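Mods, move this if it's the wrong board.
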Amino acid sequence: MGLRGHLLHFLSDPSLTGSEALQSFSDGVLLISKGLISAVGPYAELSEAFHACDSQYQYPGRFILPGFIDTHTHFAQTDIVASPSPSLLHWLEHYTFPEESEFARTDHCHEVAHFFISELLRQGTTTASIFGTVHAHSCDALFQAAHHHDMRVIAGKVLMDQNCPKPLRDSARGGIDESQALIKKWHGQARLRYSVTPRFIPTSSAEQLRLAANLYHDYPDLHLQSHVAENADEVAWVKRLYPSARSYLEVYRDFGLLGARAIYAHCIWFDDDDRTLMANTRTAAAFCPTSNLFLGSGLFDYRAARAAHMIVGLATDIGGGTSFSVLRTMHEAYKVAQLTGLTLTPEDCFYLATLGGARALGLDQFVGNFQVGKEADCVVLNPESTALTTRRFQKTRNLSEQLFVMMMLGDDRMIEQTHIQGIPKLDQD
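Not the wrong board. Structure tokens:
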């Protein structure tokens, strides 16, 4: 199998290595064998091998990039995207918890999971770290839908045994037992992995947090996902619960919930000590610009995160986030960074959405770029998807400007095709 078009991918972080980070072939070929990349390079060198492929996909005038990686999202919040609310805690009480209660019904779980996974693919997202609900069968439905499309997905059942509606409450031990059963069933099956998923400090008892940490450390390749320091009221709530803790993040540290393959959404209300702690423990941050703006939570300080050498990925955070589109999430990330004194380059943003996201999730040995041996997930972008992008693209002077136009003006219309392990997944008219 082979793909031909304008190939580009990242070999490293452009903020550290500059122009050497990006590899681009204006007329390039990606060769794929058994779902893995077997060769990448200019068409002039690989033309014979390309034409010998049993399946050939030609994308003239299109950009082929590694599939987008969403480092934090909630499939159960699909139907409450764009629900008006003044703040995070109000939004949880009035929209999130009532909606997640609907997932007690297995048929509802399967219907939403199918839509959610299909929408990710339609937007060019090929890998994601996803919250289920407190119901174990919500994860079954999500994993089944992802497995049907051979997607690389990390997901977990929410752990929540206090400070939430009774229908959404598990028990400290019961939640862990259900998680262990899901791990045995799904973790490591095909391209699926499990993530221990306490919602956030206020909704888990100390006992549940200790048990969650034990579970996380019991498996050498298990993941962990949660939220931290999203909203000032939330931070104050955690301070009341743990008054002796120096910071919200240090509560997680004290329970043993920081480390490799752990990712925390938001990380807004941090100080330099928190950022150093994240970097030293190799804990990653999920930058969620659309949800932070929508809920008025605050601005993620990417400049300070970069200075502290934090690991950062980009996230849509559906449904506080307002779009499944990673392209739209990139352009909001650019604006947030502007407001905090950092001008992100388009290379920075596309790195965050691909290799940077893979590194944040601890998956860069599998996905994130087109290095030989990695899984052949990719997205095809059409820069002439609308009259405006077509007109604007004609005025660009170099590749960086072309990436910037796609990032700032692109949306789902720009996604021409999504390939999973080389296989095209979007129906074409």
